[in-house]
Amino acid sequence: EAQVTQNPRYLITVTGKKLTVTCSQNMNHEYMSWYRQDPGLGLRQIYYSMNVEVTDKGDVPEGYKVSRKEKRNFPLILESPSPNQTSLYFCASSFQGSAGYTFGSGTRLTVV
Amino acid sequence: AQSVTQLDSQVPVFEEAPVELRCNYSSSVSVYLFWYVQYPNQGLQLLLKYLSGSTLVESINGFEAEFNKSQTSFHLRKPSVHISDTAEYFCAVRGQDSSYKLIFGSGTRLLVRP
Question: 3-class SS at A83?
Fold first, then answer.
């Protein structure tokens, strides 16, 4: 089944403790992206990647890092999480030449 | 660059009544348009999309949206809603250029009451 898999689905952590949210797709998509969803703000793009080793900042990149060492994986790294990064995170992927996107199921992160 | 405006943050409606969720966009290039739905405590699901061709697009569960280029709108409509349609709805736009970026509106919460 074609899908984007995010892990974990839920995570509660403490301020300053480094964490990684994984994202993997099995569709050989070139493009991958991370979004965060906050009430009243919709979804905002954090980082995106056009292909392996090609990443760039989205609209709200502060406090986040990403890497794209393999085509299928696009992990989101929070080096020193803070409470304002408490949010619902979505990973998405897309195929070059296609307008469609496939979204993961989301990761609800709480930083205390 | 593109932007999306969803004017209504919440729309309460009675069951079996019609509903319209408004979406306006701005873009300097032609666009693809999407509506996504998020049921409580769930992820995003694609409801319908406009890529090209007929300006009226329909979903399998009775929603429809019409692309209006002159008014830069892509409003979502349903003639008769059900309790199960209670969800948050997001309008999104992507430019028909080399950018893959999908830009979302702030969302509209549809609350269907019995």
Answer: helix
Q: Which CA distances in Å does A64 have to A1, A18, A81, A85?
A: 30, 11, 9, 9
Residue in chain A nearest B105 by alpha carbon: A42
Is A33 within 8 Å of B101 when comparing Cβ atoms? yes
Looking at beta carbons, which residues of chain A come within 8 Å of B46?
100-101
- Within 8 A by CB and 6+ apart from A93, the residues are A4, A25, A27, A29, A31, A32, A33, A74, A101, A102
Q: What is the mean pLDDT of chain A?
A: 94
* Residues A42-53 pLDDT 10s: 999 999 999 999
Q: Return the residue of B nearest to A59 by Cα.
A: B103
| pLDDT number for residue A26 | 95
Nearest-CB residue to A42 (from B32, B43, B106)? B106
- The reply to whether omega before A8 is within 30° of 0 (cis) is yes
Once rounded to an integer, what is the mean pLDDT over residues A86-109? Answer: 89
Q: Rounded distance, CA A25 to CA A5, Å? A: 6
Report the phi/psi class of residue B41: left, alpha or beta, with left for phi > 0 and alpha for psi in -120 to 50.
Answer: left
pLDDT at A59: 93
pLDDT tier for residue B76 given thresholds of 50, 70 and 90 = very high
Contact status, residue A85 vs residue A76, Cβ threshold 8 Å: no
